[in-house]
Amino acid sequence: MMAAYRSQADKGQDRGIYAAAMCWEGLKGFFERLERFRLLASYLPIHELIYRLYEETGYYDYVSAMPAGATRRANLDMLVEKAAAYEKTSYKGLFHFIRYIDNLKKYNSDFGEASVVGEEDNTVRIMSIHKSKGLEFPVVFLAGMGKKFNKQDVHGKVLIDPELGIATDYLDVEHRVKTSTLKKNVLRRKMELDSMGEELRVLYVAMTRAKEQLIMTGTDKSLQRTLEKYSQVPLVDGQIPYTILSEAASYLDWILMCTGKTGNGLRVLVDEVPLADFIGEELEQQVLKKSAKEQLLKLDLDQTYDAEFAERLGQHLGFAYPHAADVTLHVKMSVSELKKMGQLTDEEEAEQPLHRCLPGRRRTAEQTRRQSLSHNPMVPQGERRTTVRWSFCHLTRSIARRMWSTGWSSL
Fold it and tell me: What single-letter DSSP state applies at residue 303?
């Protein structure tokens, strides 16, 4: 295409690839469409312009037919959503949106792949309790029931409540005594109950996500003692008393309160599984690693335990690659690198002392080659400059030899 265009181009006419493509019959339709999209970009919103590109180029249908087409199609939809969200900011136009995308690529920011999982898909979802609010699943695993409630807020030096105000500790500077005041104790208890009430609501959300089966897992350091503690929980009007509920330290405590003699009607089945059955293999591996580490630390480094292996190891570690100099050679070099190397060669040869050109020095094959290249018009300019330097050096040597023969050496 470029050769055909340059042979027909007029004098002074642009000979670049863009001008050649504009004159190429097969690309006329492409450039007409490009000009039309440029016109649309001047007044259409970005997301509508992207939709036009999808529809008129058929790219949306093309990626749909590729492997993982649903994910690719969702990524294209997400691009349109991001463009629509960008239009709501103070920046407008296609230019600023492209700059925005370039900055995301520059700082390695990524939105990730778009989610193509539907609510009815046969998949396993891992999410927090807050994220699952409003959703339902056939089988739900509720893990981490034994985690203790976070009560750091109630142990601060200053407690603040919107109804009861502010409470602090009492300080006796004279006797150097600090103690909690009655008001602070009241605020602490109120904050604890409010926090546990919120945790109870979260547990209710988690337990009502399952349609058919709910499996709850948790760990306890002394499960038997906890079961004995809650085995005789008395019920008041068919409910667990508020004072006992407020003693719970985790979700697991509330569940175990319903497993005693008074809680059989709640259909909560407790199955105790020893921890060793789950982590026994992991514990064995950790013990083996620890013992191996201790053996390595106790080894005598000056003793040779296996002479044959030590010799083979020394050969491998002391091996020297015989062609190490060839590793630094370039497989291919750009024109700028070749030019830079030529300039460095010129500078090194320019710094050679004059005595190398005086009589008594024999011409080398390289000097002969440079002299022959100096008359060749196909030689690059950098190489020709180097040849000129060697020619000048040869001329200086001839003059010095003639002066030597005419008695200049007697001066």
Answer: S
